Amino acid sequence: MASIILIIKATFIIGIAIMAFVAGILPTIIPWCKGSANVLGIANAFSGGVFLAIAFLHIMPEATEEFSQFMENQSESDGYVSWLKHGNDDSFFPLPFALTFVGYAIILLIDKVVFDTHSLVKDHESGAYHQRDSSKNVEFEMEEYNELNKETNNRKDSLKNKVNNEIDEDEGPQRIQTKFVAKLDHALNWSNTSQKSDSSHQNDDLENGIAGLLITKKENSLLQRDHKHKKKRCACNLAPIILCMALSVHSIFEGIATGLIKEESGLWTFVMAIGAHKWAAAMSLGISMTKNFKDQVGTMIIVLTIFSLATPIGVLLGMIVATQSAIVDVIFSSLAAGTFVYIACSEVIVEEFSVPKYRWVKMFSFLSGATLIVILGFLE
Length: 380
Known about the structure:
It is a multi-pass membrane protein. By secondary structure, the protein is an all-alpha fold. Helix content is 85%, strand content 0%.
Protein backbone atom coordinates (compact mmCIF):
# COMPACT_ATOMS: atom_id res chain seq x y z
CA MET A 1 0.00 0.00 0.00
CA ALA A 2 2.80 2.39 0.91
CA SER A 3 4.54 1.80 -2.41
CA ILE A 4 1.31 2.48 -4.35
CA ILE A 5 0.78 5.76 -2.49
CA LEU A 6 4.39 6.73 -3.16
CA ILE A 7 3.96 6.01 -6.89
CA ILE A 8 0.75 8.06 -7.01
CA LYS A 9 2.40 11.00 -5.29
CA ALA A 10 5.47 10.84 -7.53
CA THR A 11 3.27 10.73 -10.63
CA PHE A 12 1.18 13.58 -9.28
CA ILE A 13 4.28 15.70 -8.67
CA ILE A 14 5.43 15.34 -12.28
CA GLY A 15 1.95 15.60 -13.80
CA ILE A 16 0.82 18.68 -11.87
CA ALA A 17 4.03 20.54 -12.74
CA ILE A 18 3.65 19.80 -16.46
CA MET A 19 -0.07 20.59 -16.46
CA ALA A 20 0.43 23.93 -14.68
CA PHE A 21 3.17 25.01 -17.10
CA VAL A 22 1.22 23.98 -20.21
CA ALA A 23 -2.02 25.60 -18.97
CA GLY A 24 -0.11 28.80 -18.21
CA ILE A 25 1.59 28.95 -21.59
CA LEU A 26 -1.57 28.23 -23.64
CA PRO A 27 -2.97 31.80 -23.53
CA THR A 28 0.28 33.08 -25.05
CA ILE A 29 0.07 30.83 -28.12
CA ILE A 30 -3.68 30.21 -28.59
CA PRO A 31 -5.69 33.45 -28.95
CA TRP A 32 -9.10 31.99 -27.98
CA CYS A 33 -7.76 31.06 -24.53
CA LYS A 34 -7.58 34.76 -23.67
CA GLY A 35 -11.37 34.98 -23.83
CA SER A 36 -12.09 31.84 -21.83
CA ALA A 37 -13.00 33.72 -18.64
CA ASN A 38 -16.46 32.13 -18.47
CA VAL A 39 -15.08 28.60 -18.70
CA LEU A 40 -12.47 29.41 -16.05
CA GLY A 41 -15.17 30.86 -13.80
CA ILE A 42 -17.29 27.71 -13.99
CA ALA A 43 -14.24 25.52 -13.37
CA ASN A 44 -13.24 27.68 -10.41
CA ALA A 45 -16.73 27.35 -8.94
CA PHE A 46 -16.44 23.56 -9.21
CA SER A 47 -13.04 23.58 -7.50
CA GLY A 48 -14.47 25.87 -4.80
CA GLY A 49 -17.10 23.27 -3.91
CA VAL A 50 -14.46 20.55 -3.92
CA PHE A 51 -12.09 22.47 -1.66
CA LEU A 52 -14.76 23.49 0.84
CA ALA A 53 -16.12 19.94 1.08
CA ILE A 54 -12.63 18.48 1.49
CA ALA A 55 -11.85 20.95 4.30
CA PHE A 56 -15.04 20.24 6.29
CA LEU A 57 -15.62 16.57 5.47
CA HIS A 58 -12.09 15.21 5.15
CA ILE A 59 -9.20 17.23 6.59
CA MET A 60 -10.77 18.71 9.72
CA PRO A 61 -12.53 15.52 10.95
CA GLU A 62 -9.36 13.48 10.42
CA ALA A 63 -7.18 16.08 12.12
CA THR A 64 -9.59 16.23 15.06
CA GLU A 65 -9.66 12.44 15.41
CA GLU A 66 -5.88 12.17 15.16
CA PHE A 67 -5.45 14.94 17.74
CA SER A 68 -7.81 13.20 20.16
CA GLN A 69 -5.96 9.90 19.82
CA PHE A 70 -2.62 11.63 20.30
CA MET A 71 -3.77 13.39 23.48
CA GLU A 72 -5.25 10.18 24.92
CA ASN A 73 -1.92 8.41 24.49
CA GLN A 74 0.02 11.11 26.34
CA SER A 75 0.73 11.01 30.06
CA GLU A 76 -0.55 13.64 32.47
CA SER A 77 3.03 14.64 33.26
CA ASP A 78 3.49 16.17 29.83
CA GLY A 79 3.29 19.93 30.14
CA TYR A 80 1.27 20.62 27.01
CA VAL A 81 -1.34 18.00 27.98
CA SER A 82 -2.33 19.91 31.12
CA TRP A 83 -2.13 23.17 29.19
CA LEU A 84 -4.58 21.95 26.53
CA LYS A 85 -7.01 20.46 29.03
CA HIS A 86 -10.26 22.22 29.99
CA GLY A 87 -10.18 22.25 33.79
CA ASN A 88 -10.63 18.87 35.45
CA ASP A 89 -12.67 17.21 32.71
CA ASP A 90 -11.30 15.08 29.90
CA SER A 91 -11.97 17.54 27.08
CA PHE A 92 -9.18 19.41 25.32
CA PHE A 93 -8.76 22.75 23.66
CA PRO A 94 -9.85 22.36 19.99
CA LEU A 95 -6.37 22.85 18.59
CA PRO A 96 -7.17 21.66 15.02
CA PHE A 97 -9.96 24.23 14.67
CA ALA A 98 -7.77 26.99 16.10
CA LEU A 99 -5.00 26.12 13.64
CA THR A 100 -7.53 26.09 10.80
CA PHE A 101 -8.34 29.67 11.69
CA VAL A 102 -4.60 30.47 11.80
CA GLY A 103 -4.13 28.95 8.34
CA TYR A 104 -7.02 31.03 7.02
CA ALA A 105 -5.59 34.21 8.59
CA ILE A 106 -2.10 33.56 7.16
CA ILE A 107 -3.41 33.28 3.60
CA LEU A 108 -5.67 36.29 4.13
CA LEU A 109 -2.65 38.30 5.26
CA ILE A 110 -0.60 37.25 2.25
CA ASP A 111 -3.34 37.55 -0.35
CA LYS A 112 -5.15 40.74 0.67
CA VAL A 113 -2.79 42.72 2.92
CA VAL A 114 0.80 42.04 1.87
CA PHE A 115 0.26 41.61 -1.88
CA ASP A 116 -3.35 42.79 -2.40
CA THR A 117 -3.61 40.70 -5.56
CA HIS A 118 -7.31 41.38 -6.02
CA SER A 119 -6.88 45.15 -6.45
CA LEU A 120 -3.91 44.80 -8.79
CA VAL A 121 -5.61 42.24 -10.97
CA LYS A 122 -8.84 44.26 -11.13
CA ASP A 123 -6.90 47.40 -12.08
CA HIS A 124 -5.06 45.36 -14.71
CA GLU A 125 -8.30 43.94 -16.15
CA SER A 126 -9.81 47.42 -16.37
CA GLY A 127 -6.74 48.76 -18.17
CA ALA A 128 -8.12 47.98 -21.61
CA TYR A 129 -11.39 49.70 -20.70
CA HIS A 130 -9.58 52.88 -19.70
CA GLN A 131 -7.53 52.77 -22.88
CA ARG A 132 -10.70 52.50 -24.95
CA ASP A 133 -12.15 55.49 -23.11
CA SER A 134 -9.07 57.68 -23.52
CA SER A 135 -10.18 58.87 -26.95
CA LYS A 136 -13.62 59.68 -25.55
CA ASN A 137 -12.02 61.77 -22.79
CA VAL A 138 -10.06 63.74 -25.39
CA GLU A 139 -13.26 64.36 -27.37
CA PHE A 140 -15.04 65.55 -24.24
CA GLU A 141 -12.23 67.98 -23.43
CA MET A 142 -12.34 69.36 -26.96
CA GLU A 143 -16.12 69.85 -26.75
CA GLU A 144 -15.72 71.78 -23.51
CA TYR A 145 -12.93 73.79 -25.09
CA ASN A 146 -15.12 74.70 -28.07
CA GLU A 147 -18.08 75.67 -25.88
CA LEU A 148 -15.93 78.19 -24.01
CA ASN A 149 -14.73 79.72 -27.27
CA LYS A 150 -18.27 80.14 -28.65
CA GLU A 151 -18.72 83.03 -26.25
CA THR A 152 -15.98 85.05 -27.95
CA ASN A 153 -16.04 87.02 -31.23
CA ASN A 154 -14.80 85.95 -34.64
CA ARG A 155 -11.28 87.15 -33.98
CA LYS A 156 -11.06 84.98 -30.87
CA ASP A 157 -12.35 81.98 -32.86
CA SER A 158 -9.52 82.34 -35.34
CA LEU A 159 -7.05 82.69 -32.46
CA LYS A 160 -8.43 79.53 -30.93
CA ASN A 161 -7.76 77.56 -34.11
CA LYS A 162 -4.22 78.86 -34.14
CA VAL A 163 -3.73 77.78 -30.52
CA ASN A 164 -5.10 74.29 -31.18
CA ASN A 165 -2.60 73.85 -33.98
CA GLU A 166 0.20 74.71 -31.57
CA ILE A 167 -0.80 72.03 -29.06
CA ASP A 168 0.59 68.59 -29.84
CA GLU A 169 -0.57 65.77 -27.59
CA ASP A 170 2.47 63.74 -28.55
CA GLU A 171 4.83 66.26 -26.95
CA GLY A 172 6.67 65.10 -23.86
CA PRO A 173 5.64 66.21 -20.34
CA GLN A 174 8.69 68.51 -20.03
CA ARG A 175 7.80 70.46 -23.20
CA ILE A 176 4.14 70.74 -22.14
CA GLN A 177 5.14 71.97 -18.70
CA THR A 178 7.34 74.69 -20.24
CA LYS A 179 4.50 75.92 -22.44
CA PHE A 180 2.13 75.78 -19.46
CA VAL A 181 4.33 78.15 -17.42
CA ALA A 182 4.79 80.53 -20.36
CA LYS A 183 1.08 80.80 -21.11
CA LEU A 184 0.12 81.23 -17.45
CA ASP A 185 2.76 83.97 -17.05
CA HIS A 186 1.33 85.73 -20.11
CA ALA A 187 -2.20 85.58 -18.67
CA LEU A 188 -1.03 87.06 -15.34
CA ASN A 189 1.02 89.82 -16.98
CA TRP A 190 -2.08 90.92 -18.86
CA SER A 191 -3.79 91.93 -15.60
CA ASN A 192 -0.98 94.39 -14.83
CA THR A 193 -0.79 96.02 -18.28
CA SER A 194 -4.44 96.14 -19.30
CA GLN A 195 -5.15 99.34 -17.38
CA LYS A 196 -2.37 101.22 -19.24
CA SER A 197 -3.47 100.20 -22.73
CA ASP A 198 -6.07 101.78 -24.97
CA SER A 199 -9.36 100.02 -25.68
CA SER A 200 -8.08 98.10 -28.73
CA HIS A 201 -5.05 96.84 -26.85
CA GLN A 202 -7.31 95.84 -23.97
CA ASN A 203 -9.40 93.71 -26.29
CA ASP A 204 -6.29 92.06 -27.75
CA ASP A 205 -4.86 91.30 -24.32
CA LEU A 206 -8.21 90.02 -23.09
CA GLU A 207 -8.43 87.61 -25.99
CA ASN A 208 -4.83 86.46 -25.52
CA GLY A 209 -5.36 86.02 -21.78
CA ILE A 210 -8.47 83.89 -22.23
CA ALA A 211 -6.75 81.86 -24.93
CA GLY A 212 -3.75 81.37 -22.65
CA LEU A 213 -5.96 80.08 -19.84
CA LEU A 214 -7.71 77.71 -22.24
CA ILE A 215 -4.32 76.39 -23.34
CA THR A 216 -3.34 75.99 -19.69
CA LYS A 217 -6.44 73.86 -19.02
CA LYS A 218 -5.78 71.63 -21.99
CA GLU A 219 -2.05 71.20 -21.33
CA ASN A 220 -2.62 70.46 -17.63
CA SER A 221 -5.12 67.71 -18.50
CA LEU A 222 -2.55 66.17 -20.84
CA LEU A 223 0.06 66.14 -18.07
CA GLN A 224 -2.33 64.49 -15.63
CA ARG A 225 -3.36 61.85 -18.17
CA ASP A 226 0.28 61.05 -18.95
CA HIS A 227 1.05 60.62 -15.22
CA LYS A 228 -1.95 58.34 -14.67
CA HIS A 229 -1.04 56.16 -17.65
CA LYS A 230 2.54 55.72 -16.39
CA LYS A 231 1.30 54.77 -12.92
CA LYS A 232 -1.19 52.27 -14.35
CA ARG A 233 1.44 50.65 -16.59
CA CYS A 234 3.71 50.17 -13.55
CA ALA A 235 0.92 48.51 -11.52
CA CYS A 236 -0.09 46.27 -14.42
CA ASN A 237 3.47 45.06 -14.93
CA LEU A 238 3.64 43.96 -11.30
CA ALA A 239 0.28 42.18 -11.34
CA PRO A 240 1.43 38.81 -12.80
CA ILE A 241 4.43 38.58 -10.46
CA ILE A 242 2.40 39.31 -7.34
CA LEU A 243 -0.36 36.99 -8.54
CA CYS A 244 2.27 34.26 -9.00
CA MET A 245 3.55 34.76 -5.45
CA ALA A 246 0.09 34.50 -3.91
CA LEU A 247 -0.92 31.48 -6.00
CA SER A 248 2.38 29.77 -5.19
CA VAL A 249 1.73 30.12 -1.45
CA HIS A 250 -1.70 28.55 -1.97
CA SER A 251 -0.15 25.76 -4.00
CA ILE A 252 2.47 24.96 -1.37
CA PHE A 253 -0.19 24.45 1.30
CA GLU A 254 -2.29 22.39 -1.10
CA GLY A 255 0.76 20.24 -1.80
CA ILE A 256 1.47 19.82 1.94
CA ALA A 257 -2.06 18.55 2.49
CA THR A 258 -1.61 16.06 -0.35
CA GLY A 259 1.76 14.88 0.93
CA LEU A 260 0.26 14.17 4.37
CA ILE A 261 -2.33 11.73 2.97
CA LYS A 262 -1.66 8.09 3.94
CA GLU A 263 -4.66 6.39 2.32
CA GLU A 264 -5.09 5.75 -1.38
CA SER A 265 -8.79 6.68 -1.57
CA GLY A 266 -8.24 10.02 0.14
CA LEU A 267 -5.21 10.72 -2.02
CA TRP A 268 -7.21 10.42 -5.25
CA THR A 269 -9.69 12.96 -3.88
CA PHE A 270 -6.92 15.48 -3.29
CA VAL A 271 -5.35 14.81 -6.69
CA MET A 272 -8.66 15.53 -8.41
CA ALA A 273 -9.38 18.66 -6.34
CA ILE A 274 -5.96 20.24 -6.77
CA GLY A 275 -5.85 19.35 -10.47
CA ALA A 276 -9.21 21.08 -11.09
CA HIS A 277 -8.04 24.24 -9.37
CA LYS A 278 -4.46 24.28 -10.63
CA TRP A 279 -5.18 24.42 -14.36
CA ALA A 280 -7.72 27.24 -13.92
CA ALA A 281 -5.28 29.23 -11.79
CA ALA A 282 -2.47 28.60 -14.30
CA MET A 283 -4.56 29.87 -17.22
CA SER A 284 -5.52 32.99 -15.26
CA LEU A 285 -1.84 33.64 -14.60
CA GLY A 286 -1.04 33.03 -18.27
CA ILE A 287 -3.70 35.50 -19.43
CA SER A 288 -2.34 38.13 -17.03
CA MET A 289 1.21 37.59 -18.32
CA THR A 290 0.08 37.76 -21.95
CA LYS A 291 -1.28 41.26 -21.39
CA ASN A 292 1.79 42.51 -19.49
CA PHE A 293 4.80 40.55 -20.78
CA LYS A 294 4.05 40.37 -24.50
CA ASP A 295 7.68 40.39 -25.65
CA GLN A 296 9.32 39.09 -22.46
CA VAL A 297 9.38 35.35 -23.08
CA GLY A 298 12.13 34.73 -20.53
CA THR A 299 10.18 36.45 -17.74
CA MET A 300 7.04 34.47 -18.58
CA ILE A 301 8.93 31.17 -18.44
CA ILE A 302 10.50 32.03 -15.07
CA VAL A 303 7.15 33.03 -13.53
CA LEU A 304 5.41 29.90 -14.84
CA THR A 305 8.25 27.67 -13.66
CA ILE A 306 8.03 29.06 -10.12
CA PHE A 307 4.26 28.56 -10.06
CA SER A 308 4.49 25.06 -11.56
CA LEU A 309 7.01 23.88 -8.95
CA ALA A 310 5.08 25.24 -5.94
CA THR A 311 2.72 22.27 -5.58
CA PRO A 312 5.46 19.61 -6.01
CA ILE A 313 7.51 21.37 -3.34
CA GLY A 314 4.49 21.32 -1.04
CA VAL A 315 3.94 17.60 -1.65
CA LEU A 316 7.57 16.84 -0.77
CA LEU A 317 7.29 18.91 2.40
CA GLY A 318 4.09 17.07 3.33
CA MET A 319 5.75 13.68 2.80
CA ILE A 320 8.59 14.74 5.11
CA VAL A 321 6.18 16.00 7.77
CA ALA A 322 4.18 12.76 7.56
CA THR A 323 7.19 10.84 8.90
CA GLN A 324 7.35 13.02 12.04
CA SER A 325 5.25 12.99 15.19
CA ALA A 326 1.47 12.76 14.94
CA ILE A 327 1.05 16.21 16.45
CA VAL A 328 3.15 17.68 13.60
CA ASP A 329 0.79 15.98 11.15
CA VAL A 330 -2.18 17.51 12.97
CA ILE A 331 -0.66 21.00 12.88
CA PHE A 332 0.07 21.01 9.16
CA SER A 333 -3.21 19.31 8.25
CA SER A 334 -5.16 21.94 10.18
CA LEU A 335 -3.22 24.80 8.57
CA ALA A 336 -3.91 23.25 5.15
CA ALA A 337 -7.62 23.07 6.02
CA GLY A 338 -7.60 26.81 6.69
CA THR A 339 -6.01 27.33 3.28
CA PHE A 340 -8.70 25.25 1.60
CA VAL A 341 -11.47 27.21 3.35
CA TYR A 342 -9.89 30.49 2.26
CA ILE A 343 -9.52 29.42 -1.37
CA ALA A 344 -13.14 28.25 -1.48
CA CYS A 345 -14.87 31.02 0.48
CA SER A 346 -12.79 34.17 0.16
CA GLU A 347 -11.28 33.61 -3.26
CA VAL A 348 -13.48 31.45 -5.47
CA ILE A 349 -17.00 32.02 -4.12
CA VAL A 350 -16.69 35.76 -3.51
CA GLU A 351 -14.92 36.62 -6.75
CA GLU A 352 -16.72 34.27 -9.13
CA PHE A 353 -20.24 34.98 -7.86
CA SER A 354 -19.66 38.74 -7.92
CA VAL A 355 -19.68 38.44 -11.73
CA PRO A 356 -23.32 38.57 -12.96
CA LYS A 357 -22.90 36.14 -15.87
CA TYR A 358 -23.65 32.41 -15.47
CA ARG A 359 -24.36 32.56 -11.74
CA TRP A 360 -26.80 29.65 -11.85
CA VAL A 361 -24.36 27.57 -13.87
CA LYS A 362 -21.60 28.39 -11.39
CA MET A 363 -23.89 27.47 -8.49
CA PHE A 364 -24.61 24.12 -10.08
CA SER A 365 -20.90 23.60 -10.69
CA PHE A 366 -20.10 24.52 -7.07
CA LEU A 367 -22.68 22.07 -5.68
CA SER A 368 -21.50 19.40 -8.12
CA GLY A 369 -17.97 19.65 -6.76
CA ALA A 370 -19.15 19.37 -3.17
CA THR A 371 -21.50 16.47 -4.03
CA LEU A 372 -18.66 14.59 -5.69
CA ILE A 373 -16.59 14.74 -2.49
CA VAL A 374 -19.57 13.53 -0.45
CA ILE A 375 -20.06 10.56 -2.78
CA LEU A 376 -16.36 9.71 -2.66
CA GLY A 377 -16.55 9.88 1.14
CA PHE A 378 -19.27 7.20 1.19
CA LEU A 379 -17.27 5.03 -1.21
CA GLU A 380 -14.09 5.10 0.89
